[in-house]
Structures are given as C-alpha cells and as structure tokens.
Amino acid sequence: MGDDATFEKFKKCAVDVLQVPEDKVVPEASFADDLNADSLDLVEFVMALEEAFSITVDETELDGVDTVGQAYDLVVSKL
Amino acid sequence: MGVGRHPLGPPGRRVSRVVLVTGGSRGIGLACARRFQADGDRVAVTYKTAPPDPAGAEATAPLLAVACDVTDPGAVDAAFATVEAELGAVEVLVCAAGITDDGLVLRMSEERWSRVIETDLTGTFRAVRRALPAMLRARAGRIVVISSVVAYLGNAGQANYAAAKAGQIGFARSLAREVASRSVTVNVVAPGMVATDMLAALNEDQTAALASRVPLGRVAGPEEVAAAVCFLASAEAAYITGAVLAVDGGLGMGH
Question: At the N or C end, where does chain A have fewer CB atoms within 10 A?
C-alpha cells in the first residue's frame, strides 16, 4: 500500500544513497542487478530509510528483500 | 576501478581536513592532534580526565576539546555531534583513547578485565561506528587505530590490555575490508615504549625488562608515533589499508 508521497520519499532515499537515476527506482528493480548496489549500499540505504521514516528495521527482516518493491513493502508495513 | 585517485586531495598539496582524536588530551593522542594541527587541519580531541593543557609549549592554536567517556555510547554520539556542529563531518578519525589496569591473570578480577576491554576495544568500535556513515557518504576517510606492540608480543601483567590491543587489529582489518570499496582506509599503528603517562605507570622492573629488548635502545617520543599516524592519514597513504605499522624501535621485529 502506501501513497504517492510515501513512494516519492522512499525513492529520494534510493536516489541519494544508491546514486541511481530516479527512473530506475521501480518496484521490480533488483538492488544487486539493476541498481548495482552492494551489501554496504543496502545497509546505508536501510539506515537512510530508518531516519527518513522514523522506523527501525532489524537485520533479519532484510532476508529475501532483493527488489525495490520488497523493500518498499517492508517500509510501508512499519508505518 | 579508479586508478591513482586521491579522495583526500592530491599528494603533496594539503587540504585542511576535520580530524578527531579520541583520547587526545595527552600522550600519543595529544601529539597526533598537535601534528595534524601543525599540518593545517582542523582538529578536535576527546578527553575523559582533563582537557589538554592550553599552555603547552607547542600549543599553536586551541584544540576543540570535547569531554567524552568512550565507554558511554551516548557520550560518543554527543561528542561527534559537537565536532560536526563546530568543525564539520569528521574526515580523519584517530582512536587513541585507552587505559591500562595491570594485574596477573591469576588474580585479575572480572571488573579489571572488562574495564580495559570496554575502553580500549569497545570504545574504538563505538567511535568508528559513529564516524563511518559520513565517511561512506563522502567516499573518503581515514581511520587510524592506536594499538600496541603488546598485541602480538604479549606482556606479563597486561593480559587484558594485550587482548584489547590485539582485538583492535582484528577489528581494524575486518573493517578495512568492509569499507575499502568506499575509499575509506583503516590502519593500525602499534607503538612500543613511548614516553607517556601510561609508560610511567609501569613498574621499574617492567620498564627495564622492556627497554633492554628495544634494538634502538631508547624510548620513543610521542611525536615519533604521531608522524606515523599522520602519514597513514595522509593523501599519500591512499593505497595502504589493513596495515599494522610498528613504531617500536624494533621491539616487535618481524610482526
């Protein structure tokens, strides 16, 4: 779920931290394959999301999160 | 793969950086702080006992001195926040905060063991963890950890200190691998016998036993350790990470 404003905020974090063009941040994009993000990028991205949305994400919750859509759903589930 | 990149500026031309030295109010930490300052950096130090003496003969300009007990994560966070507000994000971190609390293992209390591990090893972890986000974002940074020759030689009566100092090396090398892709380097300086308050705390037998084994036959001045630290923090050292640089007069030769 989530609204447009939420996704925009999410997208801004991705653009800032992962240094990717905005149009590549789409739900089906894979962090590793499409956004060229390594494990350190993902940790930085999660930290940025935690700060932007005032949420806490446990390391174990990131298992199986490979795409932008999955990460976004995880964020929305905590709002 | 960038070849010959110097994220902290080209070699030979110094840019002023923000440097934080934990435990920088005296001893090796203070010598490092003064050296960075002399080289044109903006330098902050943390202290636990007392701020650096402003009347020090070599004092050129006041250091930004921030009270911080590295055993308190909240205090570490607050100290960084102060430095960031006053000087900007930390670009060079030197972890020099450390204590000794000697005793033979047979009679060493849990408290004495933990106090040293908590300050020397976990305190290093806390400062580094707080410094990392900004360095990763900047795709540049220098971390230098002050360990000790006893990390690999051992020293009777200092099992807690040696364990913490050896732990710092494993920590630094793991971290060096984790952040290398962001051009952040992590290195260790392992001093031997240095003329500081900490050395003065050793008893005469310990000091004499150590001194007799130093090939260069003398104790180091803290500024001799600072020279190595400043080199590892320099732009010229961009290709050095995960190294342990001994500054020990040959005491630990081969390690």
Answer: N
Cβ <8 Å between A44 and B136: yes
| pTM as predicted | 0.89
Provide the shortest C-alpha distance from residue A29 to chain B (in Å): 23
What is the domain count for chain A? 1
Task: Calculate how close chain A gets to B100, using CA atoms only, in Å.
Answer: 35
Tokens standing for residue B139: 């795709």
pLDDT digit string (tens) for B114-154? 999 999 999 999 999 999 999 999 999 999 999 999 999 99
* Angle made by CA atoms B17, B135, B85, in degrees to the nearest 5: 60
Confidence check on the interface: ipTM exceeds 0.85, yes or no:
no
Parse chain B into domains and list their residue ranges: 18-247
Cβ proximity of B31 and B225 under 8 Å: yes
Residues 6 or more apart whose CB falls under 8 angstroms from that of A38 comprise A32, B181
DSSP string across B205-219: HHHHHHHTT-TT-SP
Distance CA A22, CA B86 (A): 34
CATH code of the domain occupying B18-247: 3.40.50.720
3-state SS class at B145 = strand
Residues in chain B with CB shorter than 8 Å from the CB of A44 are 133, 136-137
